[in-house]
Design goal:
The complex is a heterodimer of chains A (77) and B (267).
Chain A: E1 3-11, H1 21-25, E2 31-37, E3 43-47, H2 58-62, E4 68-76
Antiparallel strand pairs in A: 1-4, 2-3
Chain B: H1 5-12, E1 18-20, H2 38-52, E2 59-63, H3 71-74, E3 78-81, H4 87-97, E4 102-108, H5 109-115, H6 117-126, E5 131-136, H7 166-169, H8 175-180, E6 185-192, H9 196-214, E7 219-225, H10 229-232, H11 236-250, E8 254-258, E9 261-262
Parallel strand pairs in B: 2-3, 2-4, 4-5, 5-7, 6-7
Antiparallel strand pairs in B: 6-8, 8-9
Helix pairs in contact in B: 2-9, 5-6
Classes of the chains: A mainly beta (77), B alpha/beta (267).
């Protein structure tokens, strides 16, 4: 069994203002803007494909509103 | 084993695997800034440092007038609101009364460079042992995008609709270079927060600024070149590109004064 670094992010969609900076910052292109809107009427960021995520936290660092929480672990695959 | 999204979530999302989350020193209030504004990142890196350095009970911040006027609502440390541009004067008083506290001012360019230019120069010239965080977005964001002292030549704002004409309106003020020339400043740097790389670098610079104050060496001054997508009338992503192409050409990033010595030729 091989080990791999796996990341995962959680986005607080109600606090997201839809600026899209995380989409640009993500080196793996696995964040996109949702077609739905949140309570404030913004298209919120959506984490649609966890598999390539390495938990680099670039998205969370550039998020002006601090809505992204990043997890990282070594898992067996 | 096939990894599905749910399986990854189950394996990875555990409290012990958390590597990045919003610091508790920022309140749960939604920031009053526009989507994509650099203020949010600047607030967070500053508060992360206060938390990491264990200064949460020994920090007094001074909020300015401008977009960040409500900084005291968002930063969960002791804060005091100053009159427009007078944050360095207030910080001087607080630091002299409580020399053991970490005292910082958080100011925009309209506050620090325009109405507060005088206070800033004199506080830096006296070498007050305070930290000044200067957010420069080249415009008056809060009042509707008017021209600021830091507006670039040719830049369109609501009060310079044909672009800033330097013959009539003067040249942009490089406050950071000006204060670096004063003998009272010990650490002067210019940073940006529009990408993760720049934000991490800015965090290191602010950390140094805090350490300089705790060692009692003199004024530390950190300029953060930021965006104003509402004032510049661009999307946040476009505004960051514009910042990279135009603002950074005029406001060069990097340390200007380290350990009381100029490390960069001032032009």
């Amino acid at each position: 069994m091989a080990k791999k670094v796996q990341g995962y992010i959680e986005i607080d969609k109600e606090k997201c203002k839809g600026c899209e900076l995380c989409v640009v910052a993500c080196p793996k292109d696995i964040i996109r803007m949702s077609k739905d809107v949140n309570g404030k009427g913004y298209h919120y960021a959506e984490f649609f494909n966890p598999e390539p995520c390495v938990g680099c936290a670039d998205c969370a660092v550039v998020c002006p509103d601090g809505v992204i929480t990043v997890y990282r672990a070594r898992i067996e695959v | 084993m096939e990894l599905t999204a749910d399986k990854i979530k189950e394996l990875v999302v555990k409290p012990e695997n958390k590597v990045y989350a919003k610091t508790p020193l920022l309140t749960d209030k939604t920031l009053s800034y526009c989507p994509g504004c650099g203020h949010g990142v600047a607030h967070r890196i500053l508060m992360e440092l206060v938390e990491e350095m264990g200064l949460e009970n020994d920090t007094i911040g001074i909020a300015p007038v401008g977009c960040s006027v409500l900084a005291y609502e968002f930063m969960n440390v002791d804060m005091q609101e100053a009159a427009h541009g007078r944050a360095p004067a207030l910080a001087t008083a607080i630091k002299r009364l409580w020399p053991g506290k970490f005292v910082f001012t958080y100011q925009g360019d309209g506050d620090l460079a325009a109405i507060g230019g005088n206070e800033t120069l004199h506080a830096c010239n006296r070498g007050e042992n305070i930290t000044i965080i200067f957010i420069n977005n080249g415009i008056y964001g809060m009042t509707g995008g008017q021209m600021a002292p830091t507006t670039l030549p040719g830049m369109r704002t609501s009060t310079s609709p044909y672009g800033r004409d330097t013959h009539m309106m003067g040249n942009p003020l490089k406050m950071t270079e000006i204060v670096a020339m004063l003998p009272g400043t010990y650490f002067v740097t210019r940073q940006a927060v529009h990408t993760a790389k720049h934000a991490r670098k800015a965090k290191k610079a602010i950390k140094k600024a805090i350490e300089v104050q705790l060692e009692g060496k003199g004024t530390s001054f950190v300029e953060i070149v930021s965006n104003c997508n509402s004032g510049w009338k661009m999307t946040p992503v476009k505004a960051n590109q514009w910042l990279e192409e135009n603002m950074l050409d005029y406001y060069h990033l990097g340390d200007i004064k380290v350990d009381g010595k100029l490390v960069k030729e001032i032009v």
